[in-house]
Design a protein that fits this description.
The protein has ten helices and no strands. The chain is mostly helical. The chain has one domain. The longest helix has 29 residues. The structure holds protoporphyrin IX containing FE. Protoporphyrin IX containing FE binds next to helix 2, helix 3, helix 5 and helix 8.
Length: about 200
């Protein structure tokens, strides 16, 4: 079955719901006092996992579109990518507001004390640049440079699982699985990746 523009609209609606429902669920958990013994850690964990899971789904779109010859599927990448950014921004906001209580000087101390935060911040800066340049008008103006810039999502796909792996204190199985998932996703794109490295 070929995806038509009519189906695409419904697929986008479903993806919006898929990305928004977990957020509504988080709000419900917090409001009903069901966000664990340490709600601040819970919210940071939840939004971090939301960002990394959304990044996996975003990176899955191209290989799936290619495998099943569904070119229109590529049009869902921007929507999903912006949700990655939204979850990552919420994750950072939760850290700064709920954990550091807006003590900005502590943010720099934390970065020096916990280098995994610097890795997460670098990933977020990349996501922000990609999000800000994701508009059609910017894409048109940038021409070929747009694709080169957007290939930096590969670096985000390296940094995000490293940040996760490094941030956990004891449990290594789950972040290890995420490292493997991202390595496989990058392996699937090795051709585009080597081309990008040759061009830049
Ligand atoms: C400035 C940017 C960022 C900051 C300051 C930050 C900060 C943190 C902190 C404080 C933790 C909790 C570590 C702990 O349990 O003590 C964490 C965990 C995590 N972060 Fe980030 N992060 C940032 C960016 C990102 C980005 C861009 C992603 C994903 C795309 C991400 C995904 C995660 C994940 C998956 C975890 C593990 C969740 C857990 O097991 O608790 N973070 N981050």
């Amino acid at each position: 079955m070929r995806l038509t523009s009519g189906n695409l609209v419904w697929l986008k609606v479903a993806l919006h719901l898929l990305c928004l429902l977990p957020l509504m669920y988080l709000v419900l958990l917090v409001l009903t006092d069901n966000a664990g013994g340490d709600p601040v850690q819970y919210i940071i964990h939840y939004t971090g996992m939301g960002a990394i899971n959304a990044l996996i789904v975003t990176l899955l779109v191209s290989p799936l579109a290619k495998r099943f010859k569904q070119g229109l599927l590529l049009q869902t990448r921007r929507l999903l990518g912006l949700y990655v950014l939204a979850y990552a921004m919420l994750h950072l906001s939760a850290f700064i507001s709920l954990d550091l209580l807006f003590a900005w000087e502590l943010l720099f101390e934390e970065i020096l004390k916990r280098p995994y935060i610097l890795v997460g911040a670098s990933c977020l800066v990349l996501l922000l640049v990609l999000g800000l340049t994701s508009f059609q008008r910017v894409k048109r103006n940038m021409g070929k440079r747009w694709q080169l810039l957007h290939n930096w999502v590969y670096l985000a796909a390296v940094l995000a699982p490293i940040h996760f792996y490094w941030s956990v204190k004891s449990e290594i199985i789950e972040p290890g699985i995420y490292l493997l998932i991202f390595a496989s996703l990058l392996l699937l794109r090795r051709k585009a990746l080597t081309k990008h490295l040759r061009l830049s």
